[in-house]
Amino acid sequence: MSLPLENASRPSLGSLAEGVDAAIDAALTDKRLVGAVVLISRNGEQIYRRAAGLADRENGVAMREETIFRLASVTKPIVTIAAMRLVEQGRIGLDDPITKWLPDFRPHLLDGSEAVIRIRHLLTHTSGVGYAFAEEEGGPYHRAGVSDGLGEPGLSLAENLRRLAGAPLRFAPGDDWQYSLAMDVLGGIIEKETGGSLDEAVAELVTGPLGLVDTAFSVRDPSRLAAPYMNGSPEPQRMGDEALVPMPEGFIRFAPDRIFDPASYHSGGAGMAGTTDDVLAILETVRKGGAPLLSADTVKAMTTDQAGGHMQPLMPGFGFGYGWSLVTDPAAAGVPFSAGTIRWGGVYGHSWFVDPEKKLTVVALTNTALEGMWGQFTIDLRDAVYAGL
Q1: Is position 73 annotated as part of the catalytic site?
Q2: Which of 65, 163, 314, 385 is the most buried (most CB within 10 A)?
Q3: What is the pTM of this model?
């Protein structure tokens, strides 16, 4: 039985739509992606939206615009906004030591000395904390059983923080940049400060004020949840109860049903699920200046390199603000983005960027790791958008 690749008829949008359609169609035809939802907004108006491919290949379920995805690191900007609202309210300070809320979280440097981690270090991934997937098998995180927030269903935050605090910091806070579990630590601080779960805090501080109901640390309607896949040949392979996906330095351990286990901690770096429309609404709120969530001054700080230039050796032309990377030098980065563009993605297969100069927001959520996060599809999509502007 042949199945539709898309579920919405769209008016012709010229060369941009044709180029984006071609990027999506090529990824589906080449069996690099199983399904995707792509939304593009310019000047506050949605100029492109498409649901394509399959949400569940084995059961013949077509992708729909209202499909819910496991968001992985698309969680990070949402939790960052929640944290920055607490900063604006004077409830946490960027220079506060995190032991103010987590007195037992005291990881040491490699020489055994104690270091002071501050809130700003967590927000910028300059805390010295890392990720288990970024180290070789047998490294300190693996020995300690540290979870990256994507696997180990039923694990509590208190236990994961205990394990993480027992592993040495990779560097002194503020001295370098490394992508990390810092947002999981920050999630614990938000819970301590608000006195509730991270899910409740995000609902109160971010999704609730915007009227968003589908994005949370649980799945409101499981029938709309996309099945997860990972790169494979001759086609992406469906993830089972557990899946190991190779990374340059190690592998990521997935447990897709983790989100259904109420005992699983709410990972501030990877634990949410949501829709493409909700993600677009959150990012558009930032692009438009932050209201009703944040002040323009806070958004300016969030979209300025706050990582002391430490990201440059890893990614020339990029810096890191609060919650996302940003383009500081498009020529050095070799990208068509305008200077000041913010961007990131999610390891379940997602990418997004906001180009404030062009008043452009692009969100592409897929159900295929890792192609949808950093594969050829993301390059083809980006290039099609800029070619069509």
Answers
A1: yes
A2: 385
A3: 0.95
